Amino acid sequence: MTDSTSLGDERAKVGELGREMLAQELTKGTGGNVSVRSDDRFAISPSGVPYEDVTAESVPVVDLDGERLEGDLKPSNETPMHAVIYRERDDVGAIIHTHSPYASTFASLNEPIPASHYLIAYAGTEIPVAGYEPPGTTALGELAMNTMGDNHDAVLLKNHGVITVGTTGADALDVALMVEYCARIHYQAINVGEPAILPDEAVEDLRKMFKTDYGQQ
Ligand SMILES: [Zn+2]
Does the pTM exceed 0.85? Predict the structure, then answer.
């Protein structure tokens, strides 16, 4: 029923996104993970393989329960978290999980990142923090999903890192970059003074604009 070439594009994309995460300094070594969905399956980074060594064939494909369907390597230990989000959000086609340093700083402070820069609109009106559950558990995925809801595309994981989602891999990566940028600006701002925070309505308007006007349609 399946052959070794199924989800070929999605599997190749997982390797590309991982290398781009490294190049953009969103992660180090084998940290973080990436997945790209096609209907009721998704391709996800193999566990513990350096991104430069990830080929399309080496990328596992799993179902929405996280059970491996294809590929010889073990899928990322965060597969249960990715599976929960895909089950709950039909609009999500790709997920990126990083430990990017500025965003992870706020995750360790258990502090949401407010709208001190307009680019936060890529992610939501703010970037909320989900409480702590151990890495690799379905409980962590459920907590992250419940905190993110349907209206945010990013969430911080307390004492851990960041999850971002998008319609495509490129969208999820853009959100991950914006989250890290906004975290850095907010960190700098609170170290110098008291940042002005944009009202929710202003950020909602930007969010609609980004979703409709900024595409290449
Ligand atoms: Zn992690």
Answer: yes
